[in-house]
Amino acid sequence: MTDSPHPDPMAALIELLDLSDAAGAQTDEEIFVGVSMPKPGERLFGGQVLAQSLIAGIRTVDGDRPVHSMHGYFLRPGDTNLPVTFGVQRLRDGRSFSARRVHAYQNGIPILSMIASFQVPDAGIEHQEAMPLDVPEPESLPRAADLLGTIDHPVAQSWAYGRPFDIRHIDGSIYLNVDGARVAQQAVWIKTIGPMSDDPNLHRAALAYASDYTLLEPSLRRHGISWISPKLSIASLDHAMWWHRPVRVDEWLLYAAESPSASGARGLNLGKIFDRSGRLVASVAQEGMIRIPEEELPGH
C-alpha cells in the first residue's frame, strides 16, 4: 500500500495544537477548546491531551517564559469523537518562574490534570549525559509503514500512515513480536513527517505529543510482550517531562528509554531525548498500567 487512507497527519497535528479561546466561558479558569485526532478504538491518544494542555498553559504565560517542565496524571480515557475543553488556573507568576494548573475535560469531567512550570531564560551551570554511541543512522532503519503498511487492520494502517511522526526502532520494533534479547531498554529515532513552523512552543508541545508513543515499550520488551499480545491491557497513568534545551521536532531526535522497575501491574519508564548533534534536549518519565492474563504471569 503506497497511498495513505488517512487525512494529512501533519495538518491534523497543527490543527489540534491550535486551540480556540472560549470567550465568556471563564470562571476561575481560562478556557480553551481543542479538536481531537481520530484513531481506531475511539480512545484519545494521551500524547494529544498532554500537548494540548501544554498549549493551553502557554497561552496564559508571557512569551519570554518557555515551559521547562510538566507533571500530569491521566484520570480517565478520552473519546476521539468529542472536543476537549482545557481550563487553566494561574497559580503563580514570580520574577523568574510561572506555574499553571491545567485540567482537560470531556463532558465536564476531567480526563487529565497537569501542572506546568515556565521560566525566563537564565545562565547557570551546565552538564548533560552523553548520547548513546554507535547508533545506526535513522535513514538506515525501516519506517512503521514498511513494517505495517501491508497489514489489513485499522490499527496497523493507523500506525503506518496516520501518525504525524516517523518512528524508527533501532533494535527492532515490538509491533508484532519481540525479537532478540529481552532487555528493559530501547531507542528509537523520531521526527515529524513534514516541516513545522519556527514557533518554539509548537515544537515543545509536539515533542510532548510524541513522547507518549513508545515510552512504555521497554517494560513490554523486557518480558517479551508485543503490542498484539492477546488480552494485553495497557494505559498511561502519569507523565512528567523536562525540556532542557531548544528543540526542533522536524529534525531527527534519538529517544532512548529504559524501565528500571515493573511491579503491581505497573511499569516505570524513563526516557532521554537527544538531537542529532548529541545535545540532551528533554527527559521524560511515565508509569503505565500493564495487565496480561494471569496464566501468563511468572509462577503460573
Descriptive account of the structure:
The protein is an alpha+beta fold and 300 residues long. The chain has one domain (9-121, 141-296): Acyl-CoA thioesterase, double hotdog domain (Porin, Beta Barrel). Helix content is 17%, strand content 34%. The protein has six helices and 13 strands. The protein has helices at 9-16, 46-58, 144-148, 154-161, 200-211, 217-222, and strands at residues 20-21, 30-34, 67-74, 84-93, 97-106, 109-119, 165-169, 185-192, 233-236, 238-243, 253-263, 266-275, 280-291. Strands 1, 2, 3, 4, 5, 6, 7, 8, 9, 10, 11, 12 and 13 form a 13-stranded antiparallel sheet that branches. A hairpin with a 2-residue loop joins strand 5 (97-106) and strand 6. Helix 2 (46-58) runs antiparallel to helix 5. The longest helix is centred in the first third of the chain and has 13 residues, at 46-58. The radius of gyration is 19 Å and the shape is globular. The termini are far apart.
Helix-strand blueprint:
Layout: H1 9-16, E1 20-21, E2 30-34, H2 46-58, E3 67-74, E4 84-93, E5 97-106, E6 109-119, H3 144-148, H4 154-161, E7 165-169, E8 185-192, H5 200-211, H6 217-222, E9 233-236, E10 238-243, E11 253-263, E12 266-275, E13 280-291
Antiparallel strand pairs: 1-2, 2-4, 3-6, 3-10, 4-5, 5-6, 7-8, 8-11, 9-13, 10-13, 11-12, 12-13
Helix pairs in contact: 2-5
